[in-house]
Amino acid sequence: MKKTTSRPQADTAPKASRRSFLKKAALGAAGVAAGAAAPTIHVAQAPTTLRFQSTWPQKDIFHEFALDYAKKVNEMSGGRLKIEVLAAGSVVKAFDLLDAVSKGTLDGGHGVVAYWYGKNTALALWGSGPAFGMDPNMVLAWHHYGGGRQLLEEIYKSLNLDVVSLMYGPMPTQPLGWFKQKPIAKPDDMKGLKFRTVGLSIDIFNGLGAAVNALPGAEIVPAMDRGLLDAAEFNNASSDRVLGFPDVSKICMLQSFHQCSEQFEILFNGKRFQALPADLKSIISIAAQAASADMSWKAIDRYSTDYFEMRDKQGVKFYSTRPEILKRQLEIWDQVMEKRAAENPMFKKVLESQRKFAQRAARWQNDTNVDFKMAYNHFFGGKKKPT
Fold it and tell me: What is the DSSP secondary-structure string of 158-201?
């Protein structure tokens, strides 16, 4: 019989264990690599929509400025914010905008602080009157760096208004106004005229003897056409032209102290604003600064174009307001300041803050700036065009 040799049985269990471990490790590594290569999936979120209303008619360049601001915010937010801007009257009347934003009827709005004059006369100091010789950009400097912003917040808080206010957009000096009958040659020519203006400008024109009616922008030209107004001021060549002033008057008086330093205001409902993430709040604020510069540049281009269009194509005659009228405005303003400061401690507080800032800043500007009119006259004053 053949002898069978016995061999020891192979140890298969450790080998199987090692193969299983290596297989799992390889699969795990492949999974990690696949995961690293796969794109991250983001779930799209609907943008936060804010409903705004301006205090301006749809066709006014001021409404265009409001749209420009909204566009900047929408683009800078990468689609996370969407400000929709409606024209005046779409939800509330122009002069009701502040209350509507505070109550949350609207998420925000675009207007001017002088429109809230009836709530506290101090609010008109952000636009009406000669501002102690500060131009509109200097008033913005006072607002942002001289204490104006804190004073405005104090006033709104005292009125129980839940709003966040962003001041921007310095406006060029506004005309004395449009007159249906004849140019104003002396202060007494204003007496008895049915005139439109707003804010503390009402006090100035009342002091000149006019009977003032504070109408929103869209209602001015129809009122002049029906004879309810003899004269009116609004703001600038582009707005005045598109609102139809040349259709009811061919006389425009340029230069005035009644509103020579005004700015725009962007409003947000306080609760709505504070609920936004910090980066979106920063975008909203920085967009206002960017829009302020952009608006200034656009205004120079458009206002100057429409000025010459009205003069050369629509038969409008422009006159410079005489120095004696301007001087009379300043004298009346002295009386207005004294009276309003005695009536309203907040008015006095804002006034003194402006005075202190202007005494330093306006003096610096007057001492520093060259006479640009001299240069303009050198190049264009009566000289022949180069061939």
Answer: HTT--EEEEEE-PPPPPPSEEESS----SGGGGTT-EEE--TTH
Q: What is the mean pLDDT of residues 168-187?
A: 96
Residue 301 has pLDDT above 50, yes or no: yes
Beta-carbon contacts of 310 under 8 Å, excluding residues fewer than 6 positions away, are: 237, 240, 241, 246, 252, 316
Average of pLDDT values for 110-137?
Answer: 95
Q: In sequence order, what DSSP letters do the residues of 72-131 get, joined into one string?
A: HHHHHTTTSEEEEEEPTTSSS-GGGHHHHHHHTSSSEEEE-GGGGTTT-GGGGGGTSB-G
Give me the half-sphere count of Cα atoms (radius 13 Å) on the Cβ side of residue 360.
Answer: 8
Half-sphere exposure at residue 124, Cβ-oriented, CA atoms within 13 angstroms:
27
Report d(CA 286, CA 318) in Å as an integer. Answer: 38
Q: Which pLDDT band holds residue 129 (cuts at 50, 70, 90)?
A: very high
* CB within 8 Å of 170: residues ≥ 6 apart: 135, 136, 137, 139, 140, 261, 262, 263, 292, 296
Q: Which residues of 290-304 are buried (b: 16+ CB within 10 A; e: fewer)?
A: ebbebbbebbeebbe
CA distance 331 to 328: 5
Confidence of residue 217 (pLDDT cuts 50, 70, 90): confident
- Residue 133 per-residue DSSP state: G
Helices (H), the chain: 12-37, 61-76, 97-103, 136-145, 148-158, 201-207, 220-225, 237-243, 245-248, 270-274, 278-313, 323-343, 345-368, 372-380
**pLDDT score recorded for residue 385:** 53
Question: Residue 310 pLDDT more than 60?
Answer: yes
